[in-house]
Design brief:
four-stranded antiparallel sheet; Enolase-like, domain 1; 12 helices; binds magnesium ion; TIM Barrel; 2 domains; alpha/beta; eight-stranded parallel sheet
Length: 346
Amino acid sequence: MKLTKHHLTLKLREPFTIARGSITHQKSLVVQLEHDGISGFGEVTENPYYGHTIASMEESLSKIEPLLEEYISQPPEDLWQQFRERLDGDLFALSAFDMAAHDYFARTKQLPTWKRWGLTWENVPVSSYTIGIDSIPKMIEKLNQQQGWGIYKIKLGTDRDLEIMKALRQETDAVFRVDANCGWGPQETVDNSMLLKDLGVEYIEQPLPADASVTDQEFVFENSALPVIADESCQVEEDVRRCEGRFHGINVKICKCGGLTPALSMLKSAREIGLKTMVGCMIESSIGISGAAQLLPLLDYADLDGSCLIESDPAVGVSVSQGVVNLVDGNGSGGGLKSKPQLSAS
Ligand SMILES: [Mg+2]
């Protein structure tokens, strides 16, 4: 089996700002696994906040190349733990590899990835469209440039959060979701929740810092007028159980948990204990979105607009149009590169 690493630089349509900072370009690493004429693709984006660069992830991936042959015939879920250890816990690198392996393996079985997992494609949620932090006129402009979506996710964590929401509410009757990216305190969250509920907000994502105390999390859980969804507080499989009684749901990010294998089991565990389920994306190409979209039958909420935020998608695959996720006919997850950009084969 051959592993090829493709480097992508994704130019954003608009600079994107959240509570932690602003970017205009996103670097991304695409993993291609190929054997006997069949290719599987996976993607992970560089993330300085979590300490993962393209170079560090490439170095990690080089550690598993001697073991690639095992993936020719074995399902990725059977090998995941072994590869996690081999990668010294570099879950970002593993996530791209595991996504590619699921795509490859489903293609060899001549099934769409979701079908190989035994899921049924019905009543899947539509995706939200994310509006990053900006001046209020600019946020209104971004909203109006993307009319027709039924749900918008608004990034907050500023000193004018309620003004932003009031201004945006005047522009649309769509559902709003709010992501504070760790930007609020406990009482602030509870106060905001009451006001945001009246503004048609459906839930609040990660109001408190990831290292907030259990007492603060429980205070918010018990007093918030809106459901609270964990993102930064729920990154890996072991975090799911800790969210019970502290959050109403979890937002699973494939890159943070280490791929589709753990994402699947996190979503199933969350549903078992009554938590709402969500999958979010990074700003990424259609390859990453195609992988994530396979999880839709297990979701209450979806945030898969990543490829809609880039100027020119170098990949093909699952598309998201005003929130509706359109699968690709055929096997695997459906993602692939339009042409061959800069790459390093090994
Ligand atoms: Mg979030």
